[in-house]
Write a structure and sequence with these properties.
four-stranded mixed beta sheet; 28% strand; 5 helices; 33% helix; single chain; 159 residues; alpha/beta
Length: 159
């Protein structure tokens, strides 16, 4: 287990989510599945309690803690993509598996976890600053899934 690990709270589906993430993102895997040694408020002895997993190289654990806490946009995974094909692949995997679209490259998976599917070209434009960043930002603000060609055109346009 890594020294610093992100703990993601699930109602009861941590193992299913971990397998989905491992199947969807490179450098991802499911590790140990730990079962409860006794009954607890939202589960019974033998239920999956904790799942160790990695998402795109980031160590995580999924805790099946019950319905007490809900996910919100204050936590998200940001996945950097190289092109439209990769952007589409991740976006479609998340949204197409019971998730939902949001704005500006954000979507939620079916467990309520927020994801930012962010093409590299968008972040490059933002780091460039000035009118280039403003044009790319304005274009992004009109989108759900990021359209790489539109961001590239906005970057290249004269201010």
């Amino acid at each position: 287990m890594a020294k610093n690990t992100i703990c993601v709270w699930f109602d009861k589906d941590a193992e299913e989510a971990a397998h989905f993430y491992a199947k969807t993102f490179p450098d991802s895997a499911v590790g140990a599945v730990i079962r409860a040694p006794g009954d607890y408020p939202d589960g019974k002895q033998g239920d999956v309690l904790v799942v160790e997993f990695t998402v795109a190289g980031v160590s995580c654990i999924g805790l099946n803690g019950g319905p007490m806490f809900k996910h919100n946009e204050s936590f998200s995974f940001q996945i950097s993509t190289e092109n439209q094909e990769e952007t589409d692949r991740y976006w479609n995997a998340i949204v197409g598996n019971g998730g939902q679209e949001s704005d500006c490259g954000w979507c939620k998976d079916k467990w309520g976890i927020s994801w930012q599917i962010t093409p590299r070209v968008l972040m490059e434009a933002m780091r460039a600053g000035g009118s280039e960043a403003k044009r790319a930002f304005d274009a992004m603000m009109t989108m759900k899934k990021i359209d790489v060609a539109v961001i590239e055109a906005a970057r290249a346009a004269d201010g």
